[in-house]
Amino acid sequence: MQMQEPELLRTLQPIWLSRATESMARSLNIRDDLRAQLERFFFLLTQAVETGNSEWLNPVLDEWASSLTQTDLEARESNLLTFIREIMQRTIEVCRQTLDEEQALSLIADLIPHLTYCYEKAAQAEIRVRVSYVSNQLKQVQQSLERLDRSKSDFIAVAAHELKTPLTLVEGYAAMLREALNKKELSPYEHELLNGISTGTKRLKLIIDDMIDVSMIDNNLLSLNFQPVWVNRLLSVIKNELEPFIKERQQTLEVNDFPGSSEMTFGDPERLLQVLRNVLTNAMKYTPDGGRITVDG
Predict the structure, then answer these.
(1) Number of domains in the chain
(2) How many angstroms separate the CA atoms of 125 and 123, rounded?
């Protein structure tokens, strides 16, 4: 009886091929060589039934998985598994409609393990292809992000240096103007204008220096200059620096002594000042007018 199954299967090939081709070409988006692909599948299925080895079907399943298009891989539903289900349904349908009941049951029982293998193998093969596709997509995204990051870093570096040149000129002319006007009696309004220029240029210089630092960090060029520092002295410098802005907004900046603040430690004073300045500037920004800012540890 076992040896009769391949022969029964071969007698069904013309009917199976006709119905499968018609059904799948109508319901699925299949390539033009559908009939040739189905003929190959049926031949390998027959070999699998004859030998009892489902691995005969591996080549065609791997080929179908590797031929999935970008649209297939981006779709939520698996087109390949839909295709395999369609093959399984047409195969069982042809057996039932063409053979007598005993022959149909016998052949279907012999086919089910191989068809199930097809489904499982196709799912595994498609998963491998999808994982490879997604990995390649992630790699491309990473490369794009790296290019964008390099472009950002280059832009920041160029912009910072281009801004620094005219700022230096403004600072120089402002200093010359102050020196010339110091020989005259200035009104409070004129003092306010000069102080505004000085404050604005200092603030802009800090922003440009931050931009340069970002560019140096991105290019692994930022180095630290370690030397003895005292935290309370750094806080005192920052407090004096921010005092005009504190008074302008009627805020109160309170710096308390805390354990270790007056002890010598090692660090880069310029970078520590930069950090403390940014922290306290943000504190001032988000503290309402008339509010209190306390530094403690």
Answers:
(1) 3
(2) 6
Centroid of chain to Cα 252: 43
Q: Quick one: 247 and 198 in the same domain?
A: no
Taking only the tens place, the pLDDT of each residue in 56-78 is 999 988 888 888 777 767 776 67
For the domain that residue 155 is a member of, what is the CATH number? 1.10.287
CA 192 to chain centre: 49
* Cβ neighbours of residue 1 closer than 8 Å, sequence gap 6 or more: 106
Same domain, 154 and 29: no
Q: Quote the pTM value.
A: 0.50
Where a domain ends, among 144, 176, 192?
144
Cβ burial 55-87 (10 Å sphere, 16+ → b, else e)? ebbbebbbebbeebeeebbeeeebbbeebbebb
**pLDDT, tens digit, for every residue of 142-164?**
998 888 888 887 888 788 888 88
